[in-house]
Design brief:
By secondary structure, the chain is α+β, with helices and mostly antiparallel strands. It has twelve helices and seven strands. Strands 4-3-2-1-5 form a five-stranded antiparallel sheet. A two-stranded antiparallel sheet has the order 6-7. Keywords: Membrane, Transmembrane, Transmembrane helix.
């Protein structure tokens, strides 16, 4: 009976809070945010096409007419796959850190409470599969911080559990990570790759510092500053990645000397084929120039590699490059084929290019 009365009292408190002006404002604010979520991918798609058109309205309209939205949406979803685990773990860590440090609740704590445990586990699994190798130590550190702060928050009366999950587990995990990453860390320092060396070296050592409370006076400023930084940088990072994502295959057109405009006759054009019909092909060059080329003037067409996908770091761990994810590591190796010598924009045999 006592338990039933307590549950009914809690229900009444929840109903009262929901009926209050503050509760109504929070509910309306959340509905507004959920309504705006679908608009964010659309805005990214428009920004990507605007970037590809070099701020030219007519070129933008041409791309909107012919470019498949599914391909652009795929780039947005793949980028979101990177960002969502970071947002989920950051929200859970910051909310729990504030409550453990101050003993009070805030808007960060409310956000943290709304993130279920199964969402955290799913986010860690998605990050482990989709994040690059050099970011996996950061993922492990965030996961350990989430686990340790959750134990501190929910099992404050069990000091033995707190010691295990906030001290011993991060120490063991950090030592294991250093043993596993030692070859890659040494290679990163030898290659002078500072960014990779920091990403592989720093997070395992910080894991123990992220699992416990901070001074109460600094908790509010620290958590709020980090939360605002994450909320501001996440859309910027997402937009930066989407803007650089390819919208069409990168191809080359070798133009014959006859039947083509004098400006492009005998040249190799590198860019994207927007559309083609039985008479002309609409071609977008890399500098944003749109050309309508007669099909009879095209001597050959070939596919070029995307230079943006070539790894910038040579650091690897057991043939696993630091810029590759688990999916890329387990996927079949790409076919070994030489790059077309015409991709830099030079005809293979200028004298043989004829109409």
């Amino acid at each position: 009976m006592i338990g039933g009365r307590e549950e009914r009292a809690e229900d009444r408190m929840g109903d009262t809070d929901a009926a209050s002006p503050a509760g109504a404002w929070r509910g309306g604010h959340q509905q507004w945010m959920f309504a705006m979520l679908p608009a964010f991918p659309l805005a990214l798609l428009v920004v990507r096409l605007w970037y590809a058109s070099r701020q030219d309205t007519q070129t933008l309209l041409l791309l909107v007419q012919h470019v498949s939205a599914l391909g652009l949406l795929t780039a947005v979803l793949l980028t979101t796959l990177w960002v969502l685990p970071a947002l989920v773990l950051a929200g859970r860590v910051l909310g729990a850190l504030y409550r453990v440090s101050t003993g009070r609740s805030s808007w960060l704590s409310a956000v943290s409470d709304r993130i279920s445990d199964w969402i955290v586990v799913l986010s860690v699994l998605v990050g482990a599969v989709s994040w690059q190798l050099r970011f996996l130590p950061t993922l492990v550190a965030l996961s350990l911080a989430t686990l340790g702060l959750t134990v501190c928050d929910r099992r404050a009366v069990r000091p033995e559990l707190i010691v295990v999950f906030t001290l011993w587990l991060p120490l063991v995990a950090g030592a294991g990570l250093y043993l596993w990453l030692a070859p890659a860390i040494g290679q990163a320092f030898a290659e002078g790759d500072v960014v990779t060396a920091v990403l592989l070296t720093l997070p395992p050592g910080l894991a123990c510092l992220l699992t416990g409370p901070v001074p109460e006076r600094a908790a509010a400023a620290l958590t709020s500053t980090v939360a605002v930084a994450v909320l501001v940088l996440a859309p910027v990072f997402t937009a930066a990645v989407v803007v650089e994502a390819p919208i069409l295959p990168l191809v080359g057109l070798e133009i014959s000397r006859e039947g083509a405009d004098e400006e492009i006759a005998g040249k190799v054009l590198i860019g994207h084929v927007i559309a083609t019909d039985d008479r002309v092909s609409t071609f977008l060059e890399q500098d944003g120039t749109v050309r309508f080329i007669a099909n009879g003037a095209v001597a050959s067409q070939f596919l070029c590699p995307d230079l943006g996908q070539i790894p910038r770091s040579r650091v690897a761990l057991r043939r696993w490059y630091v810029e590759h994810s688990v999916l890329a590591w387990f996927a079949p190796d790409p076919l070994a084929k030489p790059s077309d010598p015409r991709c830099p924009g030079r005809p293979a045999n200028p004298r043989a290019v004829r109409g």
